[in-house]
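To: structure subgroup
Subject: Chain for Friday's discussion

All,

I'm putting the inputs and outputs inline so they're searchable in the archive.
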Amino acid sequence: MRNSTRVLAAVAALSLFAAACGSDSDDESGSAGTDAAAETTAASGGDSTEGADTTAGADTTAAGGDTTTAPSGGGEDVKVGLLFDITGRGDKSFNDSAAAGLDKAVQDFGIQASESTPTGDSDRADRLNLMVSEGNDLVIGVGFLWSDSVNAGAEANPDVSFGLVDATPSNNNGTPDDFSDDTDWPNGAGLTFAEHEGSFLVGAAAALKSQSGKIGFIGGVEIDLIKKFEAGYEAGAKAVNPDIEILSQYVSQPPDFNGFNDSAKGKEIASAMYADGADVIYAAAGATNLGVFEAAKDAGEPGSVWAIGVDSDQYQTVGPDLQPYILTSMIKHVDVAVYNTIKSYIDGTFEPGQQIFDLSVGGVDYATSGGFVDDIADQLDAFKEQIISGEIVVPTAPEG
């Protein structure tokens, strides 16, 4: 893929790397064409995946936030292919959420669905090309690692529509960090999310639960996208307590992106914040988040210190020893994005370019696993409605 598209995609997904797709390696790849054909399977219609947070998928909303009654049928002649990342179904994260959206579309519209899981980067293109050769009308890649293949596929197959989670397929003619002359493919949609809105809600949760009046934010790499998470978190916390103190630190600076995969450094930073009096820390740092959760466990008894996960319901992805410390997580509902994209294709309203899934369509939210935010859910939901109505406009850059 061209340079700036890779930067944009990497930023969007590496920040949430652990929750979204895990690590990838060309060394794991086998015979790409053979494996792709052997492992491309029909998607199961309507089956729920154990451990997946599929609440939004069950109550998918139309644009504007109004709950809709799912239509029956209408897509029997439509073929949709879903390209997972290497962890496939069962990851309790992005893949499971995407699968839930596909399964619901099978149930509601009667589409013909297939799915494929790569073994590494080198067989991605073959798997996408197989989806195209099998006559799929719409092909969706889950995660930024599909960017190269989706870009090439969109260019080579103008009669096929493509979706890409966490990035936008585009023809980049510029340089890194300069997107002014990028051109979106007319048959490619980027399924992206309003991370700052979801972060506002967990920021409010942090302030409502904090006993010390001091909370923390840890970002993987100090880039504009991760600053959106920080900005929303800061705004949500200050909406509850204007005098709250927020400690903020990034694990690494660009072009060093190791901050998304350094749990030891995450634990070190979080431990220092807890020692300095912070009792809730929100981490938007991918695999680094695990170290933050471990630091919370070391810092005190459950209920005295908290950590907040990101991207998926991280309560569902950690062991029972860490679950009592996960207050909530900022969730990106990939199921909603996948389902709504399929629906738009069937309706004839599919649009290319960046599609932002925000609170109004259930694209982002906060997790409730563990029941730790049950006592403040009414307040969080009130903030949610104010954001949806426009009464609250969440900033995309921190105050500082």
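Points worth raising on Friday:
Confidence is low (pLDDT under 50) at residues 1-71, 173-179.
The radius of gyration is 20 Å.

D.
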